[in-house]
Structures are given as C-alpha cells and as structure tokens.
Write a structure and sequence with these properties.
Chain lengths: ~280, ~325
C-alpha cells in the first residue's frame, strides 16, 4: 500500500520533472562531400539534458559538432540515430517550443530592424499594428530604440545580434538555443551582451542551451557546463556544475577565486582533448 | 553572376549601446552582405573629376564627335582622299545637320510619336510578360527538384539556340502587328530573368531560411517572405539587361516586318538609301534606350534600399 503510493508519487514527480530538453543517444553521420562513399560520424551517442529554467552551456573545440547538436535540438536536422524529447514528448519536425539564435547572420536583409523583429508574430498571424508595437518595445529592451528603420547592412555586428535576440525573444519561447551568438563580437560588446542576456534571462528563467567554444564564457553564464570531445565521433567527456552565485556580472565574476578554481579544474579535464583536436586539425 | 560573400566581418566592430546617438554620425554600411552586388552605383575608383566638369567633358566629347562627322562628310570642305566624288562620303555616312533636321521634323510635326509609342508598348509588354514568366518558372523549377531535372536539358537547349532566327517565324505565326514583336521580346527577356531567379532561389542563405522556419514560417510564408524577396533582388540585378533585350526584340521585330515603329522607319529609309533618316532613327533609339535605362535605375534604387551599396556617409 505504502509502496504503491510512493510509486505513483514518484511517477508523478518524474513527469513533472521531465527535462525541458533532452537529447537521447544522438548520433549524426554525414556523407563526406569530397568522397561520396565515405561517411563522417560527427556526433556519436550523445545524451544531454536541460532542466526547466536551467542555463546549460556546451563547450567544445571548433568543428567538433556543436552546431550539429543544436540543429538536432531545434528539429532542423534529423539525427541518424537517437531522439529528442521536449518536456518528455518526442520531437518530430521543427521544435516549436524553442527559439534559435544562429552562429551566422540570420536576419532577413530585405527587412529593416523592426520588420525583422516582428517577423515571427507576422508568421503567426498577429495583427500588424499590435505586432509593430510589441516589436518596438522589444527593440527598446535590447537598446535599439531609434534604429527601427535600419536595414541589417546599416547596423554593426553587435546591433545585428541584438536584433536577432529580440527577434527570438518576442515569440516568448520556453527553450532558447544559442549557437555561439557572441563569438563574432569584440570583447567589450560581447561582455555587454552577455550581461544583458543574463538580465533578460533572470526575468523569466527560460531553459537555455548555449553553445560556445569559450570556456570562460560558459562558466560565467551557466548553471552547468558540458564539455565535448574533439571530433570525429564527438561525445560529452565531462559535466561541471557551476555553483557561482547569481545575479552575476560576467566581468566581475571572472576575478573571483571560485571562478578561477572551476576554470582550472575544467581546463585540466579538457586539455588532452584540446590537444587531440589540435593535432587532428594540423594533420588536415 | 557574382555574389558577395555571405559572412560579414566579425571582429573589430565596436558597438556600444547606441543610446541617443545621432544616426547621421554613425557610419552606415558595413561590408558585404548576402545580396547581389551592384557595382554600377559605386563610384569608379581613381576618377577624380567633379560632376560639372565631367558634364562639360562629356559635352565636349559629343561636340567633337559631331564636328568630326561634319568635317568628314560635308562636300567640298576638305579635299576628297578616299572617295573619288566629294558627295560620296555624305552618301555613305549621312550628315549630322541633316540627321538633326530629320529628328527636328519628326518631333515638330509629331509624326514620330506613333512609331515611338508602338516601340515603347512592345518593349514594356515584352519586358513585363517576360519578367513575370521568368519569375514564376524560376521559382517553380528552383523549388521543385523533379521539375527542374526534367526541364533542365530543354531549358539549356532553348537558351543556347540563337533566338533571333525566331523573329521571322513569329511574324508568320502572329502577323505583322505588335504581338509577334512582344512574343519575340519575351523569349529574349524570359531566359535572363529565369536564370537569375533560379540562381537567386538556390543561393538563399540557408541560415536565413532556417531562421525563418524557426520563427514559425509555413511553406507558403517561406515562399513569400524569403524566396521571393531574395529572387526579386536577383531579378533587379538583371533588369538593365532584360529591358535592353526587350527593346532589341521590339526593334529587330519591327525591322524584319511591320507597319509601325522606329525599327520600321529605319527599314523604310534603308530601302531608299536615305542614310540621314537611318542615322536619325538610330539616334532616337539610343536616346530612348538611355531614358528607359535611367527609369530602371530609379525604380531599382527605390525598391532595393535594403541592399548594401557603397557605404553612405553624410558629410556635415
Ligand atoms: N551537412 C553536412 N555535411 C557534411 N558534413 C557536415 C555537415 N554539417 C556538419 N558537418 C561536419 O560535422 C562536423 C561538425 O560540424 P559543426 O557542428 O558545424 O561544428 P561546430 O559547430 O562544433 O564548429 C564538422 O567536421 C563538419 O565538417
Ligand atoms: Mg558551429
């Protein structure tokens, strides 16, 4: 009797605590472009999850398969094996609960900043005036009031990233997928954007899967950092819980002893893999 | 077709929170973006002549050309050195004053307008119909792999065929009126637009496309909001070529058989060895083509404001 009650409550707890996003033994094999017969296993047997409201970063050397994993999570790429679960539900097609911030330029160059931000609402059939007002508000929130009429090519790299951020957040997605969003920015702009991201995130604590090749960025932002091996056959080789207090200032937190400690722990864990990846890139 | 690199410069761009910044002070235009380049608008490097001066030089050059023409063809002005007869040069090359007089008579009597009107209508119709057909087919084939593999050899063959030989056939099929010229012009314009749209759709940035899908765009919305704008920019980059070809189609069609149009006027004059009128017709056509081209540039600049041109900084 008691055990039965315990069983149901445990089951209930399990359903309630289903991770916001879970990759289950994902394997991605690509056909090689140069030699069509060859196959390239970019990612192998990767299992990772993001809990509700958790900020998780994935770190790995360039070319190891980080973007590939994120595309799988977004539903843009079907894995060769394995699957994705969104709040416990298997994912088919595009992940409608997720917003995606791409590594490369993703704004529509023929739309100005305002039109880019309201694109998602327009696709959803929201009334034009209302969509315009909300887009205005979001542009101000990312510090771009007065730049509504600018086309992407008339904005700096940092501004374009802000527009992309507003474009994603206006749809209020439950899960944020971010692929090295600030990698192309200079250090000052990047830290500014990181702080802004943390501030926006602290408002409603979305579940975030954040990709980066920068270990410091990962530690400064995240609750948990997953380290990937160098490719091919990339898979997680380590997982670190970051117990730094919040709210954080990404610039200040880098000076704290705990940060330095975590950083050196992780660096030692990763060193061999980084050297391996470096050796491989030298070979090619 | 040339295409600017898709990835923009990343590092080195400082962009602080631009609160209250004066827009005019911020440098606009940051390098290449994913759109067809347009060098026509860029000022040629190394040209250091002010605008009024340039206009003056252009005028002098034109005056010089006409002066040379006059000098060489006016009988008795200089002793003949190639032809035996002093009036021969005039017979073969016409005379600038006579040519200008023809043009003056055409416009003052108004007799040219009906011909110009016909040529204009043919050009515009061929241009519009060819562009719309090219756009539709380009979109369709680019988005449907089966249709494109099926149509590929035929498209290539039809494009490789010297289509000028079709003009007399169209005259037989569609008569000597406007239709045969329009159809001929359409065959010239269609392929230019078709290939550009096809290319444009194929080269839509996969990231922009994936982003639109993540933002919830349906298949139809992708077509309308991503493929079409992208293809349109490629259509515009071919606009000067296609309006020129529409014009060529109209004039060649008229020349080969018609009862109206500037091409017809030229053909008539040639029949009676009236070289002055032939040159007058050519001159009118040239000016007409320049005006069309100017109009296209205006439309292009209005519709493609989003396209990165040269960096536009305003001087204070
Ligand atoms: N569509 C594809 N076809 C073939 N190989 C691919 C494809 N996409 C990615 N790859 C390969 O998979 C590996 C991982 O790529 P990616 O996920 O973009 O790396 P990262 O984002 O970590 O830099 C790379 O070696 C890349 O060449
Ligand atoms: Mg990547």
């Amino acid at each position: 009797m008691t055990s039965a009650t315990e069983g149901t409550s445990a089951a209930k707890a399990a359903t309630v605590r289903a991770p916001a996003l879970a990759l289950d033994r994902v394997t991605c094999i690509f056909a090689s472009r140069e030699r069509p017969g060859d196959r390239y296993t970019a990612v192998r047997d990767t299992t990772l999850s993001v809990e509700e409201g958790e900020f998780v970063s994935v770190v790995g050397p360039t070319g190891c398969g980080k973007s590939t994993l994120l595309n799988v999570a977004a539903g843009l790429l079907t894995p060769s094996a394995g699957g994705v679960r969104i709040q416990g539900e298997p994912l088919t097609g595009i992940n409608r609960k997720a917003g995606y911030m791409f590594q490369a330029e993703s704004l529509m160059p023929w739309r100005n900043a305002l039109q880019n931000v309201l694109a998602g609402l327009e696709f959803a059939g929201v009334d034009v005036d209302q969509a315009g007002q909300r887009a205005h508000a979001w542009l101000s929130r990312v510090g771009l009031a007065g730049f509504e009429e600018r086309y992407p090519h008339q904005l700096s790299g940092g501004m374009r990233k802000r527009v992309a951020l507003a474009q994603m957040l206006i749809l209020d997605p439950k899960i944020l997928l971010m692929d090295e969003p600030f990698a192309a920015l200079d250090v000052q702009t990047r830290q500014l954007m990181e702080n802004e991201l943390l501030e926006l995130w602290s408002g409603d604590r979305k579940s975030v899967l954040f990709i980066t090749h920068d270990l410091e960025e990962a530690i400064a932002l995240s609750d948990r950092v997953i380290v990937l091996s160098a490719g091919p056959e990339t898979h997680p080789i380590g997982e670190f819980v970051i117990d730094l207090p919040r709210p954080r200032d990404v610039n200040e937190i880098r000076m704290t002893p705990r940060f330095v400690e975590i950083h050196s722990d992780m660096w030692h864990a990763m060193k061999d893999e980084v050297l391996k990846g470096y050796a491989q890139s030298r070979k090619q | 077709m040339r295409k600017a690199a898709n990835n923009r410069r990343g590092s080195g761009e400082t962009s602080e929170r631009p609160a209250g910044a004066i827009p005019a002070l911020l440098p606009a235009g940051t390098g290449p973006a994913g759109a067809p380049g347009n060098d026509a608008r860029a000022r040629r490097p190394g040209v250091r002549v002010s605008r009024p001066r340039l206009a003056l030089y252009h005028a002098l050059l034109l005056g010089g050309l006409f002066g040379f023409w006059y000098l060489m063809t006016e009988p008795g002005l200089i002793p003949p050195f190639y032809f035996d007869d002093p009036t021969r040069a005039k017979f073969f090359f016409g005379q600038p004053l006579e040519v200008l007089k023809r043009i003056w008579i055409w416009f003052s009597s108004g007799s040219i307008y009906v011909h110009l009107g016909v040529t204009l209508i043919e050009t515009v119709l061929a241009f519009v119909i060819g562009t719309v057909l090219g756009l539709l087919f380009g979109l369709w084939l680019a988005l449907s792999p089966t249709a494109s593999t099926l149509a590929d050899p035929y498209i290539k063959a039809m494009n490789a065929m010297p289509r000028v030989i079709l003009a007399p056939i169209f005259a037989v099929w569609f008569g000597l009126g406007i239709t045969s010229k329009v159809v001929f012009g359409v065959t010239l314009v269609f392929f230019i637009v078709f290939f550009n749209v096809y290319q444009g759709v194929k080269e839509v940035s996969p990231v922009v496309l994936a982003n639109a899908r993540m933002l919830g765009a349906s298949g139809k919305q992708l077509l309308r909001h991503v493929y079409l704008p992208s293809a349109t920019s490629w259509v515009f980059s071919s606009l000067h070529t296609s309006i020129g070809l529409a014009f060529v189609g109209a004039v060649v069609g008229e020349y080969l058989g018609s009862a109206k149009g500037v091409g017809y006027l030229i053909h008539q004059a040639e029949g009676v060895f009236d070289i002055d009128t032939v040159f007058a017709g050519i001159l009118v056509l040239t000016i007409f083509a320049l005006i069309l081209d100017f109009a296209v540039t205006r439309i292009e600049n209005r519709l493609l404001v989003w396209r990165p041109g040269t960096a536009e900084t305003e001087s204070l």
